[in-house]
Design goal:
Layout: H1 9-27, E1 30-33, H2 35-51, E2 62-66, H3 93-100, E3 104-109, E4 121-122, E5 126-127, H4 143-150, E6 156-161, H5 167-173, E7 176-179, E8 202-207, H6 210-220, E9 247-250, H7 261-276, E10 280-283, H8 291-314, H9 320-331, H10 334-354, E11 360-364, E12 380-381, E13 384-385, H11 394-402, E14 406-413, E15 419-425, H12 431-445
Helix pairs in contact: 1-2, 4-5, 6-12, 8-9, 8-10, 8-11
Length: 454
Amino acid sequence: MLRGRKLSARELLRAYTDRIERVNPRLNAIVTLDAEGAAAQAAAADDAAARGDGLGPLHGLPIAIKDLADTAGMRTTYGSPLFADHVPDADAAHVALLRAAGALIIGKTNTPEFGAGSQTFNPVFGVTRNPWDTALTPGGSSGGAAAAVAAGLLPFADGSDLASSIRNPSALCAVTGLRTTPGVVGSADPARGDDAFDALSVCGPIARSAADAALLLSGLRGTDAGLPLARPRVADLPLPKNVAGLRIAWSDDLGGLPVEPEVTRVLRRARAVLEDAGAVVSDAEPPLDDADEVFQVLRGVAMAGKFGETIRSRRDQLKDTLIWNIEFGLSLTAPRIAAAIRAHSAVFGRMREFLRDFDVFALPAAQVLPFSVDKEWLTEINGVPQETYIDWLRTCSRITVTAHPAVSVPAGLSANGLPAGLQLVGRYGGDDRLLAIAEAAEAVLTPEPLRPPL
């Protein structure tokens, strides 16, 4: 409609901002909204269309950026009081790509303090609520993004994922979220102090369908060829049109991790639907127990490197879980770090070898259903203690260590109407094929898209 000029960017923006005004106060998903700047961008987009200019793949589509990513001239707080008034003068790499693709940058979505944790709250903007039940969390750390997309405040949103920060909120909000192969989306900027060699933290799309996620990825994709993890786009064919004949490896719990019974029930029902549609589903999983140590150590190293000075000078302005994670990183010894680096490569190799026999690996995207917005993190699942604020995310964090792309798709609703997500892991670099598999799975799992009862 935008390309055919049946709808103007101004009209579309007005529809979204009207909905944001009506619904967002109940969710606190979008925490900064630049109405004046958005209007100017929409007018420029309409002028370009009227001139017959070449239009980018995201022409005229509004998006709000996760508040961890810099946006030129727009407040960016990282969820921290230390940066409550921070206004960057340049865009993060993937934000610049979105602008170039024609997207309208209209605001920012909420995130935990420095993106640490999968419950979206911070001292600057407060807590974000789940549109399926506003007494519950949307997850995190891309919780504001997932809640906004699920509630129809945005057509799609960007997210970032280290432990589970795209996949967890996507599962808890019934949207589709892709953790990309490292290097597919160029998000590191060494000039700003980013780790150009970081393969754990990536950017990716969050949308209401796999097809919409693929559209957003077309605007996000791109990187500086001079960066260490630069990954050129390669042909990823053939792309499946349906699930018939797909070879799916299936795990209920990824090596015995605790998973809430209702999540297991929803996912087993999803498995039966896939099998009825012709997928060949087998109980199989790669051994990934050692991935927990790799993840904890490499995350700790990153925390120490990024916040080591901050904890010495501003400790009183950091939340307790972040302090613990930084101090854990500072306590690590060289032999333990070296062992984790060696094991990281071994974990990658095992997943690559495992997927030679399967098209995709399926497992829970979140081990739990949405829980109280007042609970910072889950200390137990099914009576099994979770020792740290990231232990309850291990069906995702173990996959992070493999470096393979993974997508969370809506699998269905629990008996009390809450969403559960199915995580699909694809072959390394096969992001496009993985999204095509996700689209085929969605066609049978949720032929009627799941929408929260707002």
